TrEMBL record:
Organism annotation: Draconibacterium sediminis
Name of the protein in its database record: Cell division protein ZapA
UniProt xrefs under InterPro entries: Cell_div_ZapA-like, Cell_div_ZapA-like_sf
Pfam families noted in UniProt: ZapA
Domain of life: Bacteria
Length: 100
């Protein structure tokens, strides 16, 4: 393994999954596993009669839904438009300055 490679074990729904990751990303992986575990636990409490497949499918859907919501909240198009406007303003200012 490289210096930055790091082996961790993530536990999800009672099973352990070994992963080789970049050492710098360990916290992110552990947080992700915790979110999955908490979501599974929450669905198990709400839907006690459902089998594992249903619980895991609902968990996957919930995590994917959160991901898409996060992606939408990061819409940078307005920011990019504002930067272009500022760039144009600076260009116009410099052109005017050159004329003088």
């Amino acid at each position: 393994m490289k210096d930055k490679d790091f082996r961790i074990h993530i536990k999800i729904d009672g099973r352990v999954y070994p992963l080789n990751i970049n050492r710098d990303e360990e916290e992110r992986y552990r947080k992700a596993a915790k979110i999955v575990e908490e979501t599974i636990s929450s669905f198990r409490k709400m839907f006690q009669d459902n089998d594992n497949q249903d619980i895991l499918a609902m968990t996957a859907f919930q995590v994917a839904l959160r991901y898409t919501e996060e992606q939408q909240s990061r819409d940078y198009s307005q920011f990019v438009d504002d930067i272009k406007d500022i760039k144009d303003d600076i260009s116009d200012f410099l052109k005017e300055k050159e004329k003088k």
